[in-house]
Amino acid sequence: MFDMTGKAEGLVIDGVTVSFGGLKAVDAVSLAVEPGEFVGIVGPNGAGKSTLIQTVTGFCRPDAGTISFGGTRLDGRKPEEIAALGIGRTFQTSRVFPGLAIGESVRIGTQRQLIGGGRSRPAFGAIAEPLGALLGIGRYRRAAAEADARAEEVLKLFGDRLWPRRDQPAHSLSYANRRRLDIARALAAGPDVLLLDEPTAGMNPTESHELADLLIEMRERFPRMAILMVEHKLDIVRKLARRTVVMAQGAVIVDDTPECAFAHSEVAAAYLGKGGSLSSRAVVKGHLDHAPAAAMPGPAESPAIELRDVDVHYGAVQALFGLSLKVGRGEAVAVLGGNASGKSTTIKTVLRLARPSRGEILLHGRPMEARSTADVIEQGIASIPEGRRMFAELTVRDNILMGAYARRQTPKAELDRDIEKAVAEFPWLGKRLGQLAGTLSGGEQQMVAMARAWLRKPQILCIDEPSMGLSPMMVDRVYEILARWKSQGLTILMVEQSANKALELVDRAYVLRNGALSMEGRAADLRQNPAVRDAYLGGAAAAPEDPQGASPLCASN
To answer: Fewer CB near the terminus (10 Å): N or C of the chain?
Structure first.
């Protein structure tokens, strides 16, 4: 067994802030991870989890704060320097060398030790490895033998999934085994801290729990190695982590045991959203009023959108399993669920951004014949995508005008009047029409995205995560406008992380879990259904009690 029990004084993140333009992706985060700890980082989409991993490993530079490991500063260093100091990582998406053998792919993780003794600087720089091999230096031979032994031990740890296949090319592996190969390569480097970014992403429940069992074995084998894991599947976090850090809007809101963290009222609010008073407010007219300009085509009794038994795959990964849903004409419907549940894939399938491997999609009561997303837009649909998707190098005005692409025969004077209405709805736009869209804050970009969609004059609006990354005040503003459009007859299909907020607006909702339909019903009924919360938080959410039935063991919520 190779030694991973060397000195490690812990990872310390102190007041780290990371901004992208006007958006604070990580906001004054402080966190310490001791040797041997297994810490899970969770939170809704846009919480800043992966950005924090990117910053620790040198792929993002912090605007403020420090990161240190073993008393050595990491912030400001290059990724390869941070790796050499004992920080290993995997990525959200599998990154294998498809043409290399599986054994060679794992051995790549040992290369830093070969060219420079790992945490020490290389004696001969980048030419150390070829020089050592050429001259037959004894130290290099010993290091190479140790690297081979280390790679072999890691491969054996992964059992039948990797060891018997070590001479086969990496491209022959299934998706789940490629994820295992990523972890094996990182482990071969002998890290003191291993950062796992969504290790079970794209795996089905059986594969996810099999990997969790492997991670438990890794903890037993290397008790001094700390593991920091970003993970969407909260049942996996419950199984593995002894400590859970919950992030929302770039900040840490809870740091506790998984049981106590998931029972915390702030965590439920972060995942489900906080309810407001939208349903009790009268919908008033504004500048961006929207009654569809023309009646929806097709039989009057048919749904606007219908999915029938739809499967969707991304390569070897299945994202939707036999999904069926309907959106009636003039109806607002939400697709809800936790991270990685298939919500965004549902909208992408309607928009032809993802193609079903099985099943049927109907638009206006007829089989969808659109071959591309542009064809879908031409048929009366507008989209507000997740993350707004601005054309960063175009001006605000040009971004709004992109919404009128399907109205390109419309006289310029009419489009100019429409832009004037957008400026009246969002007065700050008037001074920023000539500003590059990439320099706007997240909230400002959302307003531009809404104006862009409105300029399409659609019959159907598909909107993905309208509240992501927005302040509470801005979220209320977005939902007020959506409520107005709904009251004026616009058909809405919405994907939303903030379930409570969405259920105030929509008529009905579908709740997904692991790509399959978990429940559906009227919004008013689902608001009262505790199973919706379980679909987000991965199981029972009650705080644990002590054996004598006294007060809960968790701190007060």
So the answer is: N
